């Protein structure tokens, strides 16, 4: 005969239980059979599951303070701040804010409010480069996961950005995602049980878009994909149906997203700074992923604009700059300038020879196919020679890619990818490889056998001509004949001497390596007083190797020595998107002009973004005053773009006509002008004599686009939700979790008490010697900053800090670890006295009070019932810390207003109290807690629950979210963490207790 087991008791979320020799708080997701518990005062990493049927679990109460455990005047403030910093289940309406390591600006909460309005979240976040799209997407993801509206997460991005996405999710939002890349899939599959998928609906992943769209993994991914998908650089996943570049790749990506979007309850966040490339069709296809109506609706109508506003948010820098008036690091301006140089006579002569060769070889082509092949190969030679001698030599020794094309249209598609910088492609072919110019390719210019044998061989005269050009290009290397390189050395030196740390952007790998080698040599000549660290990063390196190369240049070395302040990074456009460099660099030099102004914006956006500590960043454009190629790019594209940007305050995409306009202008230069091109440029300038009609058409189209863009600012602006609507709630949450000044004072005082010897810095913040901290806290600091972090550690009065340093915010790992240590040691009297800077009791003599006044530090716990999108109610834990105070005897208290109670934290001691006397008074107060005082605290707990419920109601009303079932209920009696008695200062000293 068996006896049925008695069902284990159900414990409400937020209630206290005793198990395994300690007290725990019951968390959401607990069931009758399995309790999910967090140690009282512990962190999320300490969460454990307990089976009540196998282990003893009983209700518990929070232990009161020990009357003899007395602290000084600072004890109460340290204990209160440590408690609030340690909250990971804050009571505010944004459930994730207490558990993330980022302090969002008010404007970054607008997309979150938009998301809360939707049953299934579908958003296109298109804010400007550098103002926090990753944070905005991460906030939405963290909130959906915290509220239980999403089970899992996947980020689709380029492999070059995968590691950065994983680091952002883990470091800022506490989401530990797995990388799914060609380099990791083998290990992931080996770790996965046979017959199961690498993907789980409740998992978190960062996935290479191009890898997962392959037939081998696509179906498995689509079947097991989590219910929340973030797509980075979403513009690269759509293309015009008539596009001539990257159409196949974009269509494959779009097909993958289309299938993901076809699942009606899947949340989808599209992230891009360039949603509109100047072509309407790709933009509409992008919007159509969010809602089919957006693909065709007219945005001129009010109904169309209102529909768009539900799914689309786009803010420019000017729109959000006022949010950074509180000392947060965001550049106040960008100082841009053009810097010219004159070609050396030998360089000018070679360029003239190349132009003559280009004109002759294109005109002598046999048929349209060969003409287009020769056109693109000579254009490649012109562009590489404008870049550097090294790139020109490489081009003259490389077969032209357009030779493989079978039709003129195919030649143009290949040429645009390999030679131009089209707006609608991110093909790796166009990244930074030098385009070849050899046509035909039977024999290389150096005389070696060509890759394709003897077909269509060059005659001896043309071969000799190419050999001569290659030899002439090689002789131009170095700052003597390469005046562009010479001018760069001057620019870099001036920037370094002014305290800037520049990035030099080049178009080609060969140019970047050439520039880096010469900068290392010239800037570090023998006897140089201040050596300069120089490194180059190009597409030849894998994404991980690129990050490692940057870290070697910008991080402390193995001995803990800080990175050199005088440093230069030379890079190709493999770093122009995604990789954030604002912590280590603050100036950009465009060594090579991009043939797309958007690329310049992307380059400058690497340093001109949130977290940049330099108030004004530099952006310098280097060009040849007598170089016709540079002149065309400047006049047709870059200067027009900059003029329109200055006039409108926004960056207007290059119109669709830009490619054809550039082609026409280059044809004018190469084919139609019998006057020596350099002579004409020196005498008149390209457009002074005659405006080319197609360039004029481009200008008109661009002006029209600018007018439409200005009008679209009201069309696309997110006016349905104002950041002011959530500012009050955000301010209330921040105050409840600890203000910036409070956190700074807490950290400084706590580290001082723990023997870290903090020292204030003239530029703000302070330093501390963390190696002197107690072992447990020291290990936590090293884990957060890395074992090779600089000593002493720098603590910044700012919401962001460079690697290896600390931002004085509650979510910084070092600040959080300090608060946890202070709270843990306050609750455990077994620690040595010097390791306990906070105590739970105190009696303070002060002139801040006229009558004996008692302050209580109280923690409330609530079960918060939140309506979900599917109509169910999800229980959540919420915590809040309050300071309450009363005057008089505990048996007949006169309770003070909240502001007077908080003011006691600032009271300064003016005399000592006898320990025995203090212990007796604290004992009497604790005795009264069991009677009348606790009744008052229970009433205050109910009032706090009502405030919490009202706050959630306000935000949900603004977000038009469900309200039915919303409720906040106190769980158990409030915890009294601290008891502090303030006594009036004696007017006549009669002894220790006068």
Distance between the termini: 74 Å
Mean pLDDT: 80
Estimated structural class: alpha/beta
**What is the topology, as strand order, of the major beta sheet?**
8-9-7-10-11-6-12
What profile does the largest beta sheet have? 7 strands, parallel
Shape: elongated
Helix count, per DSSP? Answer: 30
Q: Which percent range fits the helix content?
A: 40-55%
Question: How does this structure look, described?
Answer:
The model is unreliable at 1-9, 241-246, 426-430, 441-456, 674-692 and 989-994 (pLDDT under 50). With 994 residues, the chain is of the alpha/beta class. The protein has a seven-stranded parallel beta sheet. A six-stranded parallel beta sheet has the order 13-18-17-14-16-15, sandwiched between helices. Strands 23, 24, 25, 26, 27 and 28 form a six-stranded mixed beta sheet that branches. It starts with 15 loop residues before the first strand and ends in a 10-residue tail after the last strand.
Please name the defining characteristics of this protein:
about 40% helix; about 15% strand; 30 helices; about 1000 residues; elongated; 6-stranded parallel sheet; 7-stranded parallel sheet
Outline the secondary-structure elements.
Layout: E1 16-19, E2 22-26, E3 35-39, E4 48-50, E5 58-59, H1 75-85, H2 110-116, E6 122-125, H3 133-147, E7 153-157, H4 159-173, E8 178-180, H5 185-191, E9 204-208, H6 209-212, H7 215-224, E10 228-232, H8 247-261, E11 267-271, H9 280-288, H10 302-309, E12 312-313, H11 317-320, E13 333-341, H12 345-363, H13 368-387, H14 389-396, H15 408-418, H16 460-475, H17 483-497, E14 502-505, H18 509-523, E15 533-537, H19 543-554, E16 567-571, E17 587-590, H20 597-605, E18 616-624, H21 628-648, H22 658-670, H23 677-683, H24 693-716, H25 723-737, H26 740-753, E19 759-760, E20 766-768, H27 775-785, E21 793-796, E22 806-807, H28 813-827, E23 841-846, E24 853-867, E25 873-887, E26 894-895, H29 898-903, H30 915-958, E27 967-970, E28 975-984
Helix pairs in contact: 1-26, 1-28, 3-4, 12-13, 13-14, 13-15, 14-16, 14-18, 21-22, 21-24, 22-24, 26-28, 27-28
